[in-house]
Structure prediction request, 496 residues.
Amino acid sequence: MTEEDIPLNLSPAEEKFEYWRCRVGLVLGLALFLLLLWFPLPGLTPEAQRLVPALVLAIVFWITEAIPMAATAMLAPALCVPLGVTGQSNVLAPFASPSIFMFIGSFFIAAAMHVHGLDRRMALWLLTKPGVTRTPFTLYAAMGCLTAALSMWMSNVATTAMMMPIGLSVLAACPGLCGNRAAQCNLVLLIAFAASVGGLGTPVGTPPNIMTIGFLREMNAGEVTFFDWMKLGVPLVIVLMVFLLWLLRPRGLAFTDRRGMEAGLRDQYRALGAVKPGERNAGIVFALALFLWMWPGVTELLTGQQILGAAWIAEHVPEENVGILCGLLVFLLPVNLKEWQFTLTWKQAAQIDWGTIFLFGGGLALGKMIETTGLAQAMGDGVVSQLGQPSLWLLVAAGIVIGLGLSEATSNTASTNIMVPLIIPIALAAGLPAIPVALATGLACSFGFMLPVSTGPNALAYGTGLVPLPRMMKNGIALDIAGAVAIWVVVWAYFH
Prediction:
């Protein structure tokens, strides 16, 4: 499931806003494009002057979603060829970035886990363990932490879509929760918010993460490894999950029929039957990818050097190649050789979120051209000349606030495509390290918890009918503020 597949159940006022947002965005984007073609900005290289109209068109179209965002991501780079920004091969090369293939491979692995129900088996296995359903709080904590853990490796939307029915079945099976609207609302919000928070933990957890790493590489601003990201992302997830469990904790509740609820969960788990070949294969591939991604970083962290094959893995199996190689294994591992059935079919694989992949590629292409045409240098110099020499941590704070605010108005991936390529040259022009600024901005672009349209998980939560919009906005604002502070503190602690 992708965000485009989710019914938003908008109110009449929200539908009217969306109606006019798209139409105004289409007219405004085209008008600015033509205006900047006729009156190019002074002080730029000729290539940069010709890039600006396409870049502004992309930004306006992404914010307003005048046309599908993936289409914008292909349109803006394609325009750069007739505009004379650069040659076709240079424009299209970032669409074949290793980071994109890492993302495709991780999508294949997640699809195999979902198709064969391994994700659901893992969830029900945990929920049937002794003590998990002892109190409403332990149940909420288990649901939230499990959602976050799965979302570190799977799409936030897919994780929410899988966990939400389990949460709703728990609510239906327990009269103590079923009759309490606040408790129902909090559990649904917890699942949705935890999915978005968990995605921060790994590079493959959510598109903005791998996009940020890709922008740093394409703009020659630094390298961030899989394990480096986790050293920053996992502590952030832990901090935010603690806050989230406190914010949405069930207050003054006790189970009136805990045994009935536990029996219902056990029945669901038993109904899955024995582990099937597809589940086994998906689990093997997932474990292998996890080992290859993390082993070099783990050994270096524990011993100060890459030992026990870690150095060979780091040299011969780069992280991006791990993603695509392990992702392709799901087409090789058989489920039933006699009938020539394998873990994943291409028809199933074709259901992954290709739109996000094109959006990622288009963002990388524009980011690379921003750097090579000299526009990045000009933007950075312009900001520094107007605002003076910013401190590193002030710039980090600015990136967080602007990225978070933009993510409330448009999708997280679009926010990242806009913000990260713009903040990197500002940091470099100011003589500051780009990595902490880019990472903080990219993490902030994964936020936006106030509205149903902010994220896919939010839309799924709102679609249950159990979450009033004021409650989503109230709790979303609290999590946005906590998230902004937590990102700044964690990034400061990591790089200080």
